């Protein structure tokens, strides 16, 4: 294997891992607050089509990424109102949000199907700005959750919301902020797909990456630094299907296309074999409805 091929594999893996990393980090913060949002796939799709439409109309990558994040925030705000104020079931609401996002993205994206835009140029070492941002974000969240007072408060709300509420902390407000951050990151991950990874719009282009991001949070046992490892693992599986022939692997293409999803299932099975492993760092109030006094 020559150096050029190795470099191409590394850059392709970084590109494939970035949307997973962004969406998973956003969902990790959301779940650390005790809220389970299964609408990541829908928010990624809406972010992807919003970014592509904005880029097509304005030609501004910065504005396109900003609109994608705002679109993700809008959907996550809807989820927050339903689950945190109206006390609907978080699992059912998250699934409904995904279905809504898939349909909305398909409707909005009809005029742009098959269209292309100018991709984002590499910034450093062949990496684009969003990939570099994902690395910085991973380190920043490691510090935020483990070292900062605000991060410790977020974790406290996810563990014992009643205790945090009794002390006087605004549980609902903190959870809203976590949910909005998760939506923004999912939207940004979707924008990466339509502007950087493949600068075009195709209906359903997330191809299940939102679900992989959800599994990635469990794989990482709710720790940001492990999200980086898991994203690169799943990203590598995705890239392998495109480089298998160049590597001389005589494997059917149908099997290679299943690799990322088979890897997701295999990792979850291995983790869930040990109940202590799956519960490690999992917020105690995850997915449980709580009605604060204030």
TrEMBL record:
Which residues are listed as membrane-spanning? 62-84, 91-112, 124-145, 176-195, 201-220, 227-249, 255-272
Q: Which residues form a coiled coil?
A: none
**Organism's domain of life?**
Bacteria
Q: According to Swiss-Prot or TrEMBL, what is its membrane topology? A: Multi-pass membrane protein
Assigned GO CC terms: plasma membrane
Indicate the principal place this protein occupies in or around the cell: membrane
Give UniProt keywords alphabetically.
Answer: Cell membrane, Membrane, Transmembrane, Transmembrane helix
> Mind telling me what this protein is named?
ABC transporter permease
Give the source species: Craterilacuibacter sinensis
Q: What is the lineage of its organism?
A: Bacteria, Pseudomonadati, Pseudomonadota, Betaproteobacteria, Neisseriales
């Amino acid at each position: 294997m020559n150096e050029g091929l190795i470099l191409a594999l590394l850059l392709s893996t970084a590109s494939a891992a970035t949307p997973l990393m962004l969406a998973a980090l956003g969902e990790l913060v959301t779940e650390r607050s005790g809220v389970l949002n299964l609408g990541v796939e829908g928010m990624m799709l809406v972010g992807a089509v919003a970014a592509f439409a904005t880029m097509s109309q304005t030609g501004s990558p910065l504005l396109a990424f900003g609109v994608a994040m705002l679109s993700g925030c809008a959907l996550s705000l809807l989820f927050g109102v339903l689950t945190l104020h109206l006390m609907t079931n978080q699992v059912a609401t998250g699934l409904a949000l995904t279905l809504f996002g898939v349909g909305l993205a398909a409707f909005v994206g009809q005029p742009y199907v098959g269209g292309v835009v100018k991709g984002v140029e590499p910034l450093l070492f062949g990496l684009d700005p969003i990939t570099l941002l994902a690395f910085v974000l991973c380190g920043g969240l490691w510090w935020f959750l483990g070292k900062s007072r605000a991060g410790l408060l977020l974790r406290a709300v996810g563990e014992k919301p009643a205790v945090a509420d009794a002390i006087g902390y605004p549980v609902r407000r903190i959870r809203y902020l976590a949910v909005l951050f998760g939506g923004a990151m999912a939207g940004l991950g979707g924008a990466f797909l339509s502007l950087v990874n493949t600068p075009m719009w195709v209906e359903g282009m997330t191809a299940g990456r939102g679900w992989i991001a959800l599994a990635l949070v469990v794989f990482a046992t709710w720790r940001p630094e492990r999200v980086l490892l898991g994203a690169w693992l799943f990203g590598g599986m995705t890239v392998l299907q495109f480089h298998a022939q160049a590597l001389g692997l005589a494997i059917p293409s149908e099997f290679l296309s299943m690799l990322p999803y088979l890897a997701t299932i295999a990792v979850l099975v291995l983790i869930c074999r040990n109940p202590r492993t799956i519960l490690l760092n999992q917020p105690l109030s995850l997915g449980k409805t709580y009605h604060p006094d204030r």
